[in-house]
Automatic annotation (TrEMBL), chains A, B:
InterPro entries: ArsR-like_HTH (IPR011991), HTH_ArsR_DNA-bd_dom (IPR001845), HTH_MarR-typ (IPR000835), MarR/SlyA-like (IPR039422), WH-like_DNA-bd_sf (IPR036388), WH_DNA-bd_sf (IPR036390). The lineage of its organism: Bacteria, Bacillati, Actinomycetota, Actinomycetes, Micrococcales. Residues 142-162 are annotated as: Disordered. This is Transcriptional regulator. PANTHER family: MARR-FAMILY TRANSCRIPTIONAL REGULATOR (PTHR33164:SF57), TRANSCRIPTIONAL REGULATOR, MARR FAMILY (PTHR33164). Residues 8-139 form the HTH marR-type domain. It comes from Arthrobacter nitrophenolicus. GO terms for biological process: response to stress.
DNA sequence: TATTGTTATACTCTATAACTATA
DNA sequence: TATAGTTATAGAGTATAACAATA
């Protein structure tokens, strides 16, 4: 049953090693650009369709003040527009401008090209399987982290104390 | 040959999604602690054996000033010690103190326990394969990033121009 | 009262530039 | 000259607290 401690420990280190490698590559890619990786992340989710700020913050995993600032920055760059939610006077709806769509497309094309180049000796199947593996890992982490944050006991011991 | 654009684009997003999930979990784990994730990373590599600061910075993928500050912080916390390299008057050798070893072990145990818990419905084989997959991806990225940084042309077009 | 969003402030992590000391 | 390391400074990204406006 479950995962052995040594395997879990190895997996932790593999995750952090990947983080480090990605950080270096991403940092090199945005050097001298106005739109840093955080703003790029916001653009991505706004690009999936007009959305509330609250919803965006949740999907991005950042706090509301952080998102508020990012939206303000993107608006200043002319990449997004805000309008009031017709169904809720407190809320805003954020959407990409044409310039924002261009920017997002450009960012995606650049990233895709770099990764294609970096993985040029990989097979299509390897890349596809890796994407699936990452997705599965991320979903497990998000699900468990949500449950933990909500105070749901996870181990049998904790459940007894509950 | 190689990886299709759509697959590469998907993989990029899977990588960033994992980063986000891990950031949230890691941030929650170090809340209120002296030893943040960056210092924990330094501890890990120092824990593999007494090492030069330069070597550590390279392995961590950070600049020399950043590592210098981290080492100073860890020394202040009594977790590492520095001594001059007997073979090079300019260089230092950094090693864990007993307290540093304790701290590293405690960090690893805590992380391992959390990941084991989060992946409690995973099989040992799935976890092992995921670790291997991450390792392969990281190695490909690091290798290509190194080559790019060194100015080695990567695409046939660029090679022709060289 | 609870929720949406903003502003003010501070912390973590990182980088570049300028420097000292040694090779 | 080149390398190892430090200090000073700046920037990106994030969080908490306090607030205003609306539900």
């Amino acid at each position: 049953m479950a995962v052995a401690p040594d395997t879990a420990a190895d997996l932790v280190y593999q995750i952090f090693d990947l983080q480090r490698a990605v950080r270096c590559i991403a940092a090199a890619g945005v050097r001298g650009q106005d739109t840093g990786v955080a703003l790029q992340g916001v653009l991505r989710f706004v690009g999936e369709g007009e959305s509330r700020a609250t919803k965006l913050a949740e999907r991005l995993g950042v706090s509301a003040p952080v998102l508020s600032r990012h939206i303000a920055d993107l608006e200043e760059q002319g990449l997004v527009v805000r309008r009031q939610d017709p169904e809720d006077g407190r809320a805003q709806l954020v959407a990409l401008t044409p310039a924002g769509k261009d920017k997002l497309r450009q960012i995606e094309e650049q990233r895709t090209a770099i990764l294609q180049d970096y993985l040029r000796d990989w097979s299509e199947a390897d890349a596809g399987n890796t994407a699936k593996t990452l997705h599965k890992l991320t979903e497990s982490l998000k699900k468990s982290a949500r449950a933990t944050a909500a105070g749901i006991p996870s181990t049998p011991e904790e459940q007894k104390h509950g």
